[in-house]
Amino acid sequence: MKKEGFFKKYWLVLLTGFVVGVAALLLQKLGNPGNMGFCIACFERDIAGALGLHTAGAKVAEDAISVGNLAYFRPEIIGILLGSMLMAICTKEFKGKGGSSPVLRFFLGAGVMIGALVFLGCPLRMVIRIGGGDPNALIGLGGFIVGILIGVFFLKKGFTLNRAYKQSSLEGAAFPITTAIMGLLCLLGIIGLMTAEGVKPGGSRAPWYIAIIAGLIVGALGQKSRFCMVGGVRDAVMFKEFGLIAGFGMVILTVLAGNAILGNFGETYKGFKLVGQPIASADWLWNFLGMAIVGWGSALLGGCPLRQLVLAGEGNSDSAITVIGMIAGAALAHNFKLASGASTLADDGTVTGGSTPNGHIAVIAILVLLAIVSVVCTFCKKKEKAEQ
Amino acid sequence: MTNYLATFHTHLASLKTHRSLTAAGIAARMAPVPRKISSSCGTCVFYSADDPCYGMLDADVEAVYLLKEEHDAELLREFE
Q1: Which residue of A has its CA nearest to B38?
Q2: pLDDT per residue over A222-271, tens digit each?
Q3: What b-and-e string marks burial along B45-77, b requiring 16 or more CB atoms within 10 Å of the CB?
Q4: What digits encode the pLDDT tens for the residues A83-116?
Q5: Cα-only R_g, chain A
Q6: How confident is the model at residue A387 (pLDDT cuts 50, 70, 90)?
Q7: Quick check: A93 and B11 CB within 8 A?
Q8: Cα–Cα distances in angstroms (integers) from residue A336 to residues A55, A218, A362, in the given order
């Protein structure tokens, strides 16, 4: 094939990075939490809450089931799934496909989510936090890159979750369609958990119709461009291809410029201090290790949480299982107090919040499990094949 | 000498194919699958040979394309 110039080849990835950055800024401006205009992990965690799988932040009240403030069927997720699906259908790329180690993918997805909730954000929120002037996210980026490099090491040595096979379109469409229907019913108030009087579930949020449109655009562009936070580092290291990683950089630049223009640094910028950043833990070691899990697990899964959603939208049932694993992981993270809280500085100088002892144990356990999965699926698979 | 591109169901299959083609003295390189070919984010092998070398491709091969001078790839064969 003819060699193309960098911009001609990767303009769509760069455009996607720009649009993701603008969408994150817009959604934050319209009500989403600080430095969380877009976060796949946080939004899937909120969906887990909306389904009653955890009750993080719940207030107990008489005569009513109280749901937590992390309970909201985030429309962005519905939008991404449907946007990817519609784009894939229009370009005849929607295909039911799956069967590549679904159970392992479920657990890897759950592990990635727990790592993300110890750090407090998926790779996308990590770059949005960097663009928002949060130095904790730079430490997370270090862990994320180290994690991907470990994953790439095993990929180069022959790691595999085995191949996927063709499946029916119904199998491919089941997850995005069901999620969209349930989500819309929740958003319209037709189904949903009872809320105690005075408890507003879901916390901060942008208007749902704008959130869903932003999700649709990001999902469609993500499908067309294969935008992926993990794929960028993987391709750069393995193949010296820098297109996807340029998209990653584009999100940071866009958010950085946008925050500067919107004057957000005045409100949220804490002089590059670790403590006091919006919804951020200041425990650098656990931020590093949490994102190392996300990088390593996502490299083994073949894509970051956003990419998994986009793939699920285009009919990949393995990615659908991964997303379901992530939602289950979010429930575990909050029910067992593995997720970190925001670090805040009290008047007397003490720091509260941050990572939890249970979270530390979970991080170490998941790192050990990732090592076992990586070794078994790299070295023992070769033996299995040789014996066949 | 003709240029070919093979896509695979797994990264491991492309790794093994790259190794066997290189061992046979065929110029081959691994790369991300071009977006024009597929929406998946797997890896493929570009190689130059007199024929498509089907026998040397891993069992998890997905498809083989013929690369033309100026423009896109032409699908030669799709595997199960």
Answers
A1: A93
A2: 999 999 989 999 999 999 999 899 998 999 999 999 998 988 776 555 56
A3: bbbebeebbeebbbebbbbbbebeeeeebeeee
A4: 999 999 999 999 999 999 999 999 999 999 999 9
A5: 20
A6: low
A7: no
A8: 11, 32, 10
A239 in contact with chain B, both atoms CB, cutoff 8 A? yes
**Which residues does chain A have within 8 Å of residue B71's beta carbon, measured at their own beta carbons?**
1-2
Where in chain B are the domains?
Answer: 2-78
| Interchain CB contact of A385 with B (< 8 Å) | no
Selected residues 157-176 of chain A with any CB under 8 Å from a CB in chain B: 158-164
> In this predicted complex, what is the ipTM?
0.93
Of the given ranges (A195-209, B23-37, B63-77), which has the lowest mean pLDDT?
Answer: A195-209
Task: With CB atoms and an 8 Å threshold, state whether B39 touches A239.
Answer: no
Show which residues on chain B lie within 8 Å of chain A, measured between beta carbons. 5, 9-13, 15-16, 30-32, 34-35, 39, 41-43, 60, 67-73
Domain ranges, ordered by start, for chain A: 6-383
A189: nearest Cα among A347, A73, A18, A329? A73
CATH of segment(s) B2-78: 3.30.70
Q: Count of CB contacts below 8 A, A vs B?
A: 56
